[in-house]
Design a protein that fits this description.
7-stranded antiparallel beta sheet, 4-stranded mixed beta sheet, 11 strands, 211 residues, 4 helices, alpha+beta
């Protein structure tokens, strides 16, 4: 039976960025794939510019997320200098940027290894327990309130691993699903290159809640 890594994401603030530009940076209501990969990459000590290792990590893992506490979404305001314009050139004028954060949210994340994983789930689990870079909950200002590592679970699949934990919140799971689960299309798959771009993926919403 497969083994899965269980993580708890809890902190005063979290921010899981969605499709955005300089003057408005919204947060998703649950952790994005790009954000989770960044968190694991930090634990492993991967350089953000190391496209090869980042790609290896991305193809090595799959995720399921359960909303334990939904939290409240509130904005913060920043003045940004030399913000990018649509044509990619820096704006000569300061720009007011609105950034959203989730306050009081908590999530349980199940990490599964893929069949042809270049980075083993065991290596990821060890890195989570002794991270090389500081892991954060989306943005650098969003510190963890509790340790990430919760334990290991043996289960048939990602959802079954979450079910062992006894929570009742909405679950967002990657991969194939059957029955009456609701598919949701998200643009949060990081695409490597000189520009920040994101591809689409499909997740399934199980239980109560909405995207």
């Amino acid at each position: 039976m497969p083994t899965f890594l269980i993580l708890k994401l809890r902190g005063p603030m979290q921010a899981w960025g969605t499709h955005t530009f300089e003057d408005f940076r919204p947060s998703n209501l649950f952790p994005t794939r790009s954000g989770l990969l960044g968190l694991l990459g930090a634990c492993l000590g991967l350089d953000r510019k190391d496209d090869e290792m980042q790609a290896q990590l991305a193809q090595s893992v799959e995720f399921a997320v359960r909303v334990d506490e939904g939290g409240v979404k509130l904005p913060d305001f920043h003045t940004v200098l030399a913000a990018r314009k649509v044509d990619g050139k820096p704006n000569p004028n300061p720009v007011m940027s609105r950034r959203e954060y989730l306050y009081g949210a908590a999530f349980t994340v199940v990490v599964g290894g893929t069949a042809n994983a270049a980075i083993s789930l065991d290596a990821i689990g060890k890195a989570v327990q002794c991270p090389l870079y500081t892991p954060v909950l989306g943005r650098r200002s969003c510190a963890l309130a509790d340790p990430l590592f919760t334990g290991w679970r043996e289960a048939a699949d990602l959802k079954a691993a979450l079910d062992q934990d006894g929570g009742t919140g909405a679950i967002y799971v990657e991969g194939d699903a059957c029955g009456d689960e609701r598919p949701i299309e998200l643009r949060d798959v990081p695409m490597r290159g000189s520009h920040r771009r994101f591809g689409k993926r499909r997740v399934y919403l199980l239980g109560n809640g909405g995207a």
